[in-house]
Amino acid sequence: MKETFHTAKGFVANKNRRSKHPQGMGFLDALPDAALDSVTELACSICETPIAVIALVDQDRQWFKSARGLDIGQMDPERSFCAHAILEPTQVMEVQDATTDVRFAAHPMVTGGANIRFYAGAPIVTSEGVALGAVCVLDRVARRLSGGQRRSLENLASLAARLLEHAESMRARSQARFVQWEQEEEFLQAVSSAALDLTSYVDRTYTYRFANDAYLKYWERRREEIVGKSVVSLLGEDMFQKAAKPALDRAFEGQVVSYESVVNFPGKGARHVKITYLPSGARVGAPCKGVVVRVQDIHELKSHELELEKTVQLLERKTIEQQRFIHIVSHDLREPLNSINNFTSLLVQDHRESLPREAQRYLDYVSAGGARMTRLLNDLIRFTELENYTLDLEAVDLNLLAAQVRDDLLSATLDVGAQLHIDEMPVVQGNASFLRIALQNLVSNALKFRHPSITPMVRVSSITEGSDVVLQVEDNGIGISDEHQAEVFDAFRRLHNRRTYEGTGLGLAICKRIAQMHGGWLSVKSEPGVGSCFSLHLPSCVSTPSGDPLA
Amino acid sequence: MNPLERIILVDDNDLDNVFHEIIIRKTGFKGEVRVFESGTDFLAFLKQDALNLRTCVFLDINMPLLSGFDVARSISPVLQNTPGFELHFLTSSGSTQDKQMAGSIPGVSGYLVKPLTREFLVERFQLGT
After folding, report:
1. Considering CB atoms only, which of B19, B94, B95 is closest to A342?
2. What is the spatial distance between Cα A70 and Cα A61, in angstroms, rounded to a whole number?
3. Count of CB atoms situated within 10 Å of the CB of A148
4. Which of B56, B15, B60 lies closest to B39, judged by CA?
5. What's the distance, CA A48 to chain centroid?
6. Counting Cβ atoms within 10 Å, is residue A461 exposed (0-12), middle (13-18) or buried (19+)?
7. Cα–Cα distance, A150 to A155 (Å, whole number)
8. CB distance A343–B95 less than 8 Å?
9. B22–A339: do the CB atoms touch at under 8 Å?
10. How far is CA B48 from the centre of its chain?
């Protein structure tokens, strides 16, 4: 027993070392035992010996794989005949009488109970020329093999070699498959665990076969509380019957099913999710074995979408409100303006000649102002009526424009005793009517919001920055505090205070629109008690100096 | 056809009515000029009118309570079946939408943007010749 134990231990030790064998002979432990037993049986019957052994060796050790007529436990793997046999891998080694052979006379197998006299060993050599061991026949009487027996023993050895090689290639292939499968499994596990989407696999009995980490987290369950359990036990009867089961049934038929829903997860609360049921392994005609359920948490996306939708609706409503407001106001303005124009025209037609020269001049101013106002109003109405109003651009001399504005606002300027300075300015590309409205509004505001105890000074100037022109209107009025500076351009704020701030509601909003129509913007710098400076930025508005716009 | 005997102005803007009457008179029109400041008043008058004078109605569109469109629609059968009784919208709105709306009412003769001009009256009714 002690001997057997020792041998087994040696065998185990060998096994470990063999796995590191440079020739890759790890297959030695995966032998087709039954086939090798047949080889030893054949060896005995062909060579007419009571004992046949297949011994395998590696660099350090040797051991027996199949033995006939001898208890393997009785053999000492440390001291085998076979080591000698494979020294000469191309031929059969034959020891006809071990007692007369110096190499084996003192061998325990010869002197001991086994009482071996005869040994013949044919080396097992792989196709690559590596000697793996030997097929040996032994006898307790001295004898010799015939030529036929020797050749047969060689054949049996090469059969054993082929069997071993075949076994090795089978083993190597399945080993490689196993490694690959293990790797794939590892990748899949890692991917599905790291995924933010909830993933599970449900088989045709509505039982979970797989659930990833996200799935467990959302449902606040341990893996064993989901995997192997029924879908209904997790979702509850209601959700299962109404949503999950119909979707699963369609997926089992091979359809991809997808829908959005709100699910109340124990671990996350109510979440807006997109659930997709993907039939698994469904080839055409083949039955679907199960369904991959993918749950994507689109809660944030969905709430952003809803928010955006609300904002867009609000914007649309505001735009419509604003346009309707401008529309109504311009129509309301048109009625009194029409009256002024109508009766002015009657005055001009019927009574101009009878008026003093001075009165005639004043009447002409009224008439011209009314006509211009009508034009502007028509422009403004057109502006609100047409969604994509494109400006007719022309060369506009800002000096001329400012002079016209000075005339327009002459009485207002005189009334408040203001001084209006106009600097030398360039010719720009723009729309004269609209730019005149803008400048008029800005100057008119400068006069309106004057400082009560200082002579109002208003300065109209411009800065040229590359191809951009900035038209500036500067005053020494009451100014605007920082927190209100952004609001002054907002038509709606002004709208609600229309009674308090009569006549000022739309002015700056229109200026802003006019700036935008020119591709520019309106800005303000102001200090309470010191004054304001409004800047109308007109990008790429410098007119060609030659006056030829095509040049 | 008889010369024009009556002009009816329907407009809530009294200044426009005054002006238009002056323009009409300046063409030398000697017939009747009637002014109504609401569609309701005009409709009440029309109910008891014999409709035997050659008449032209100038109807404003933007009026409180009863719009010019409402008025024109309610008297559309009269307009279609009474020879010598015609109606023109006279409005400050030049919007395409309003023009289309006006064109869809059967019996309406025209759509004018204010103010009413001597040229129109002269050409249409041979006034002032």
Report:
1. B19
2. 20
3. 10
4. B60
5. 76
6. middle
7. 9
8. no
9. no
10. 18
ipTM for the predicted complex comes to 0.79
Q: Contact A143/A105 with Cβ under 8 angstroms?
A: no
Residue A363 CA to residue A348 CA, distance in Å, equals 7
- Residue A50 token pair: 């009571």
Within 10 A of B31 (CB to CB), how many other CB atoms are there?
Answer: 16
CB A111 within 8 A of CB A78: no
Going through A222-289 in order, the beta strands assigned E by DSSP cover 257-265, 269-280
Please tell me the distance in Å from A325's CA to the nearest CA on chain B: 16
Distance separating the N- and C-terminal Cα atoms of chain B: 16
What is the DSSP code (8-state) at residue A543?
P
- Asked if A335's CB is within 8 angstroms of B92's CB, the reply is yes
Alpha helices in A126-220 (DSSP H): 147-194, 213-219
Long-range Cβ pairs for the range A61-67 (8 Å, 24+): A61/A10, A61/A13, A61/A14, A61/A17, A62/A133, A63/A10, A63/A11, A63/A14, A65/A28, A65/A31, A65/A33, A65/A36, A65/A133, A66/A33, A66/A36, A66/A37, A66/A39, A66/A40, A67/A40
Of residues B32, B88, B22, the one with CA closest to residue B60: B88
* Partner-chain residue, chosen from B22, B94, B114, that has the shortest CB–CB distance to A338: B114
- Token pair listed for A129: 């020329």
Q: Which structure tokens are listed for A317?
A: 């409503």
| A370 to chain B, closest Cα gap in Å | 14
Q: How far is the C-alpha of B96 from the C-alpha of B101, rounded, in Å?
A: 9
- Verify whether the Cβ–Cβ distance A331 to B93 is below 8 Å: yes
Report the distance separating Cα A71 and Cα A215, nearest Å.
Answer: 59
Picking from A323, A342, A385 by the largest number of B CB atoms within 10 A of its own CB, the best residue to mutate is A342
The model scores a pTM over 0.80: no
Cis peptide before A22 (omega within 30 of 0): no
Chain B positions touching A334 (Cβ under 8 A) are 92
Instruction: Please report the residues numbered 62 through 121 in chain B whose beta carbons come closer than 8 angstroms to any beta carbon of chain A.
Output: 62, 92-95, 114-115
Per-residue pLDDT of chain A in tens (551 residues, 90 and over written 9): 333 333 333 333 333 333 334 344 454 554 557 888 889 999 999 999 999 988 887 766 677 788 888 776 656 655 667 767 777 777 888 889 988 888 888 888 888 777 889 989 999 888 888 888 889 999 999 999 998 999 999 999 999 888 888 888 888 898 899 998 988 888 877 777 777 788 899 999 999 999 988 899 899 999 999 999 999 999 999 999 998 999 999 998 888 899 998 999 998 889 999 999 998 865 656 778 889 999 988 888 888 888 888 888 888 888 778 777 877 787 778 888 989 999 999 999 999 999 999 999 999 999 988 887 887 787 677 666 554 556 778 899 999 999 999 998 888 899 889 999 999 999 998 888 788 888 988 998 898 888 888 999 999 999 988 888 999 999 998 888 887 777 777 654 443 343 444 444 567 777 888 888 888 999 999 998 899 999 999 987 666 544 444 43
